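Figure S4 source data
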Amino acid sequence: MDITQEIKRLARDKNAIILAHNYQIDEIQDIADFSGDSLELSQIAAKNDAAMIVFCGVHFMAESASILSPQKKVIIPDPTAGCPMADMVEAEDVIDLKKQHPGAMVITYINSTAAVKAHSDVICTSSNALRIVERVDADEIIFLPDRNLGSYVQRFTKKKIILWKGFCPTHEKFTPEELRAVREKNPGAVVMVHPECRPEVIDLADEVLSTGQMVNFVQKTDKRKIIVGTEIGMIHKLKCVAPHIEYIPASASFICPNMKKTNLQVLLNALQKEETVVSVAQDIRDRAKKALDRMLELSY
C-alpha cells in the first residue's frame, strides 16, 4: 500500500477529515478532503461529522478549528508550523492598545492567535475586512496585526484606523521592482495580488484579492494570462478550478516556509500517532468565539 492509500485508510478508520490551506504543497492539497482559506476550512470542519480534524496549515488555523469545534480532536501535522505575523502581536499588546485608545474597537485579522482573538471585539478576514470596519459601531479602529491589510482598508473608509506593526514576511518581501519586471516579461497579463502585500505593490496591481476571491475571479474572467501575487501554492488551487488559464508566479521567492513543512510523510505520522493536538482553553475559546460570531453577524 502506498503512502497516499495509507493516509486515506487511516483517515477513514479514524473518522478524520483532512483540511489543506491553499498555500500547502500540491500533494497535500490533492489528498485533502477540502482545500481553501483558513476560515472556510474551519467552518467546513465544524459542519462535518468527523471526530478528528487534521489541519494542514499553520498553528492559528488549527486553533480556529478548535474554537469552532471544541468537541473534536484537532491535529496539526507539524507543530512547528507557525505564522510569524500572528506571533507579532500578543494579548498584552491588545490590552495596552485598548488603554491608549479607550473609544476604539479592536478588529483582528483571523491570522492571529486565539489569545489575541479573545481580547478582540470582532474578527475579520482579508475578504471582509472593509465590510467589518464599516459596519462596527465605532469611528476609531485598532486593526491587528497586519499593517498592510489595515492600510489597504484605510483607502476605502473615513474611519480612523490605528495600525499595528505586524506583517506577513512572505508577502512583505515582494517588491514593486519585481512586479514591474514580471509584468514587462508578460505584456497583457492581469496582475492580482493579496492585500497582505506592501502598499507600493498594491498600487501597481489590477486586482487586490483574498485567496477565496482569487478562486472566484479566475472562474469568471475571460483573461487567459494571470500574474499571481501571493504564496506560490495558490497556483495549484487555481489550476484545479480554471486550468485553461496560464498562471505566472509573481516571484520565485513567494514561498512561506511554514506552509511547506507538511508533506505526505508528516501527514501520515500525524494520523498514526494522532499528534500534535491543538486545543484552546475554555475561557479563551469562549471569548474568541464571541469575536468570530460577531464577524459572521456583520458579514451578511
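Figure S5 source data
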Amino acid sequence: MKSCLLGATCACLIGSGVFNPAQAATWGVEVGVATASPCPSFCGGFGGVFDSSFDGGEFSGTAYTSLNNAWGDGQASANLSGPTLLPVLGAEGLSGPNSLAGSSAVGMRGYTYSGATATTISLDIALDGERGGTVFSNDAWVESNVAVILGDVNAFVADYPTFIFEVVPLTPGLSELGTSNLSLDLNAGPQTKADSINLTLNPGDEFFVWAGIEAGGVRDGFGDAFNTLSMSYSDDTGITPSAVPIPAAVWLFSSGMLVLVGIARRKKAA
C-alpha cells in the first residue's frame, strides 16, 4: 500500500510540474584526460592505443579526474568556487616518447544582474602555467577560452566551438557579450596571461559565463595549467549566481517520504 501511494505521489508531482529540470538554469563542470600512442607524425592509426577518463557534467559543482599509464599522464579539475561562484579550472598533460597526453576542463554558470541602473564592469581572467615541447612548436599546448553570453542558456556544452559557433547563434535570445582566448608561450617557463571582457549590463539581464581550458603535449611535450584558470568581476554588486536546482530524484524521494510520514502520523493519531 505504501509503495503504491509513493508511486502515485511521484506521478502526480511529475505531471503537475512541481519540478521540471528543463525549467532550471543550466550550469555545471566537466573534465577529461586522454592518452594515445603511437604518435610519429600523427596519433593513432593502425595498432593505436587509446585511454581516457572523465568526470562531471550538467549540474555538477565539482569534478576531478586523472590518468597515468605508459604513454603519459594528466589530470584535470573544475569547480564553481571562484568569486561569485565563477568557474576555477585546472588541466595538465605530460606525454611520453611517441605518445600524446592531454586534458581539458570546462565550467559554466548563469547570473542575473539586479542593479537599479545600467552598469559596465569587466570579467578579469588569469591563466597560469607552463608549456614545453622538444621537437615541434605544436608538441605542447595550454589554451583557454572564455565567453559571456547574454540570455538564458538551456544546454550544457563542453566543446567551445560547438557552444560559440552553433548553440549560441542558433538559439533565439542568445548573444555574445564578449570572448577571450589565451595561450601560453612555448618553453618560456612559468607564466601568467591575463585578459578582460567588458560587460555592459542592464537591470534584469540574465547572462552566462562559459570557460574552458586545454593542456597537453605530444612526444615528450607537456602543458601544465593545473594551477590554474581563474576569473573575477571588477565589481560584483547586484550580480547573483543562478539558483541551484534540487535533482528530480531528491524532490521525488523527499516528497514521497513526506506523504508516508503524514500517513504514519494519521494512523498513530487514530
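The radius of gyration is 23 Å. The first strand starts at residue 28 and ends at 37.
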